[in-house]
Amino acid sequence: MENPSSSETQPPKYDLITVLSIDGGGIRGIIPGVILDYLESQLQEIDGDKDARLADYFDIISGTSTGGLVTAMLAAPDPKANNRPLFSAKDIVPFYLKNSPKIFPQTGGIFASLVNVGKALMGPKYDGKYLHELIRKILGDTMLHQTLTNVVIPAFDVKKLQPTIFSSFQLETEAALDVALSDICIATSAAPTYLPAHYFTKEDGQGKVIKEFNLIDGGLAANNPTLVAIREVTKKIIRKPDATPINPLDYDRFLVLSLGTGSNMSEQKYNAKAVSKWGILTWLVNSGSTPIIDCFSEASIDMVDYHNVVVFSALQSEDNYLRIQDNTLKGDLASVDVATKENLDNLVRVGEELLKKTVTRVNLDTGHYDPLPDQGTNAEALKSFQTAMENVSSPEIPVSKDENFITVLSIDGGGIRGIIPGVLLAYLESQLQELDGEDARLADYFDVIAGTSTGGLVAAMLTAPNPNANKRPLFSAKEIVPFYLQKSPQIFPHTRGVFGWLKNIAKTLTGPKYDGKYLHELIRKKLGDTKLHQTLTNVVIPTFDIKTLQPTIFSSFKLATEAALDVELSDICIATSAAPTFLPAHYFTKQDERGNVVREFNLVDGGVAANNPTLVAIRELTKQIIRKPNEIGISPLNYDRFLVLSLGTGSNKKEHKYDAKMVSKWGILSWVFKSGFTPIIHCFSEASNDMVDYHNCVVFRALQSEDNYLRIQDDTLKGDLASLDVATEENLNNLVIVGEKLLKKKVTRVNLDTGLYEPVPDKGTNEEALKRFAKSLSDARKKKKFDSQDRN
Predict the structure, then answer these.
(1) I need a labelling partner for 439 at 20 to 30 A (CA). Which of 162, 330, 420, 668 fits?
(2) What's the DSSP call for residue 564?
(3) Residues in the active site (predicted)?
(4) CA-CA distance, 784 to 338, in Å (whole number)?
């Protein structure tokens, strides 16, 4: 493959697009370093060229945080070596062994530990000076456009509350992203509580600032950047279809190597009973770990792998996607910063042992990683990677002749802000009633209703059967808002005055802000003993298991293969709403007929895994199509046959509440409590929401089916309106007004070049769009009824 040394994407070798992706993980970057050294040695042996480098073989190298630094090392040109890469793969591990102790200096003794804790509470754990000087020294003034192959490195803008993706593919449309690689690497590594945020600017030829950046760790947006890299390529193909000889969704033409940095998933360090008593401090510091960051990072990594496995399985191209990860780390090995010689040397051994382990793949039914004995070891899989480049066949994707749509409703998490989608859903249902009669309910029209946290509760309200009304839903859409107005003040009680405020602070530091008793009783009273299999349409509700450090997706589609998920809706709703620091974690079990426990659940808020559950819902449907292709009647990747409505709960993005200069001084306390907000959770949630919408927009744009995907969100909230729990009468009523005004606003869509939401002039208002959506839903339902009668 030719080296572009510019923003132009080169045609891929062998008509394949080759992708290397490297996770974030601090000092654990040593583990993929060992793997990459082995891979490069195999390429040198196969091609008989000792000068062969990874940048010669991969069309895209993507990395987050420590993975972003490795990406730059592999792709930056060495001006002293005829523009060969600055580092060979075998240089990565020695680099980490030498420099990590200076990047993360360790102090011993009890008093030193107390000093470290005090410092971490009030400011970042490390000042970052050595790291910043080191990065600037090795990368110099190399700019993004000068890399020897295309790179994709995520960061997160703490001022705009949205991901910033530094991508070679974006330079043609957004030249302001062509900044120094050193700034990109410092930014993507700026892990909250560990290293200071990074502020820098892009200036034009006259020295005028054209863009400012307020950035923190890319792990908030995509700790596993594989899906981001694939989407960046997809965008490029959409823009210039003639430049790359494949179609935008020809995932079978991708050859992807995704490298993890290890995790302690198997250690099962936490459980719901312990976590249910945690306050802010314990969520941030527990036995040398940072549980809140661990949970969000592991969830992000797992969800990306889950999505990729579904897509490659749909094309029967599983061998085109190789994920190498070790989930068995324990103690210091799982840390991001314990840079003692012993621990660093042990990480090298972890990498070496990982090469000898059997290839694993996520089981789409259980979500667990299962060994694949017939695939051999990871070392053997890497040896065959070059062969795969030369011999990949392209299976035909059958095109469906069935014109039926699969209809999806998705509702974000957001506490009391569930009022906003409540207003929108009431309007949509009223439009359906105008078309089809007063008895029309949303569950009659959507094949899947997905919801996270407060959205999960709404999903259950709309789909649980009313025992007194012959298979009609427990709630109509118009009853959602009154329910929130009446119940929210009791779910989130507020004490007034200075002493009340101090009492709340003290309680929040040492335990969850609310005990959840009223919420739990209310949910159990409303939903009774209704089980997941009894919902009136399919539901998908994400949660996160704090013990296994994995998402648990409660999905109607999984029940055929995983009966243990058929639990009470009340337990699912309590679990998906158990927001860290706000409400206690939820422990419950599934028992068989004899009372034996067949599965235990240690769950927290689904927003840790997918605050916007749209992509999870689409992937659950895709899995079902793979399992039962004849029953559903469309191909797994016929996204143009999906009709998707995704409702946000509002955000305060436009408020620009934080910036890098402010955040760079924050310690643990400020990251978890600032002006009534919890910035660390706020940032993770906004990043998750945006990345899902970004992925969906790319896919539907690729199929020229943008009108099949409608996302309605208000990012102009300010003050108490943006809170999850300020349940005063004034604030709740104001949220109703926000929802009503949102109906009158223009339809917006994310700009794939800038990542910003822009009005779509020819699509009218959200109210008009929902009217059109109602007509499409009505038509789709009538066609399904007709087809069903015709078959009978």
Answers:
(1) 420
(2) G
(3) 65, 217, 453, 605
(4) 59
Bridge partners for 688 per DSSP: none
Q: How far is CA 761 from CA 647, 743, 747, 764, 775, in A?
A: 20, 15, 8, 6, 21
Active-site residue among 453, 488, 555, 646? 453
C-alpha 692 chain-centroid distance: 7
Per the CB < 8 A criterion, the answer to whether 607 and 592 are in contact is no
pLDDT tens-digit series, residues 728-787:
999 999 999 999 999 999 999 988 777 778 899 889 999 999 999 999 999 989 887 776
Query: Domain residues of the chain, as ranges?
Result: 17-106+129-191+214-263+325-389, 406-657+687-791
CA dist 142 → 74, 76, 139, 459 (Å): 13, 7, 6, 50
Pick from 316, 265, 274, 225: nearest CA to 691: 225
Its pTM stands at 0.89
CA separation for the pair 175, 750 (Å, rounded): 19
Q: And the tokens for 198?
A: 């990074």
Q: Is 430 a catalytic residue?
A: no
CATH number of 17-106+129-191+214-263+325-389: 3.40.1090.10
Residue 167 CB contacts under 8 Å (≥ 6 apart), including other chains: 150, 151, 152, 153, 177, 232
The catalytic position among 217, 412, 545, 571 is: 217
Residue 394 a catalytic site member: no
Q: Is 670 a catalytic residue?
A: no
Q: Can 685 be counted among the known catalytic residues?
A: no
Tell me which of 56, 447, 605, 693 is the catalytic residue. Answer: 605
The active-site residue, picked from 7, 21, 62, 65, is 65
AA letter at 757: Y
| C-beta separation of 572 from 588 below 8 A | no
At the top level of CATH, which class does the domain 406-657+687-791 belong to?
A: alpha beta
Residue 140 scores a pLDDT above 90: yes
Q: Nearest-CA neighbor of 303 among 64, 682, 614?
A: 614
Mean pLDDT, residues 470-477: 93
